[in-house]
Amino acid sequence: MKLAVHLALLALALGVAGTAVAQSSQDATPPSGSMATMPAHQPPDPQQQVARLSRKLQLTPAQAAKLEPILQSRQQQMQQLRADTSMTPSDRRAKMRSIMQDSNTQLQSILTDSQKQQYQQMQQQAMQRRLDKKGSSDDSSGGQ
Prior knowledge:
Number of helices: 5
Largest sheet: none
Helix content: over 70%
Oligomer: single chain
Radius of gyration: 25 Å
Structural class: mainly alpha
Order of helices and strands: HHHHH
Low-confidence stretches: 10-14, 16-36
Strand content: under 5%
Shape: globular
């Protein structure tokens, strides 16, 4: 009887250890090309942004052609800013806001009045989604 209990406990311990090892090896070795090789937040491609804005705002081809360099410049500036480790986080955030405001001003200069209204609505909706998402993540991590 004592031998059977010891064997059962040994089997249980080996099963738990095997599960833990399997789990840790899955966590430690992500598949190639996975999100682990990418930054936490990958910004959308400027061409994809132009296509999306063209669809949502019914941009003319001339407007779309003017938007792409603005969005490419914004993406490049943001990448350079993220790579700059000499700035404090608050300075980096302030600079990011400045870059976003500048590019949005340039972008809106290309839009018609009705497109500007639609674009502002899109921005407000996106801000609301971010706030909702932040609020829900704060709620789920709150009391644990």
